[in-house]
Amino acid sequence: MTAYPHEPIRSDKNPTIKRIKALLTQARQRKKQQQTVLEGVHLIDAALRSDYPLAQILVAESSCHHPEVQAILRQLQSGKTPILCLDDAVYQNVRTLGTGVDIMALIDTPAHNLAPIDSDCLILNDVQDSGNVGTLLRTAAAVGIDTVICTPMTAQVWSPKTLRAGMGAQFALTIYEDVSIDSILSEVNVPLLATSSHTDTLIYQHDLRAPLAWVMGNEGQGVDTSLLHSATPIALPQPNGQESLNVAIAGALCLYETLRQRSYRHLTA
């Protein structure tokens, strides 16, 4: 069993505690500090499996000897990651998750500069709901698309809510945030495709086997006009006449039809 070496922090006035609470609750602080917080065993495990560095571990006193916490601590035996124990009441005052295994990790968030893109990618054009963004990231990772580009009004990819929705998919992806539409149009060198109700080209009739960029638009306004004008419009059939699909559902359908076409080609080649 891994022993815990420090006395618990018992004051919520502690500077580290105040910083963690700000990162969990304030998008402005996450952007300013270029850091975020992973809550719970699952996200920390996902980071460790991807060899993503943890800046700090914080664990509630009552969870220090939990088997899942002990397993995480054993992976950090090198001593490079500071480990802090928190009094249970202090931890509960900070956390945003419900009851569970009380452990969290502080990480630095990556900042990539967009370079020319010549392979598959997913473009999130002002998708504002964290749940939708996380679901789209998770789906992209599942089908093997590892590049995601986000325009400035897209929900923060590394916010605690988006991290939970993505189930750790962020660690399997190269994600570019706050990218202007002009930069996308100049740097993405594969065809852009965007779902639209104003076209007769059904997704099942379009060849998706070559590298491409799927564009998913804002929940209310859809894809920006300048991006839409540069994209091939693709329709998702809705025989019962619903106005539109949820963007995360639409994105999943597009990505999996892309995968289906390519897998079919591979299997019959």
Short characterization:
With 269 residues, this protein is an alpha/beta fold. The protein is 36% helix and 17% strand.
Total of helices: 10
CATH fold-level name of the largest domain? Alpha/beta knot
Oligomer class: single chain
For the sheet with most strands, the description reads: 6 strands, parallel
Q: How would you state the average pLDDT, rounded?
A: 92
Record field, number of beta strands: 10
The separation of the N and C termini measures 53 Å
Task: Using the alpha-carbon principal axes, give the shape.
Answer: elongated
Q: Radius of gyration from the CA trace?
A: 21 Å
| Sequence of secondary-structure elements | HHEHEHEHEEHEHEHEEHEH
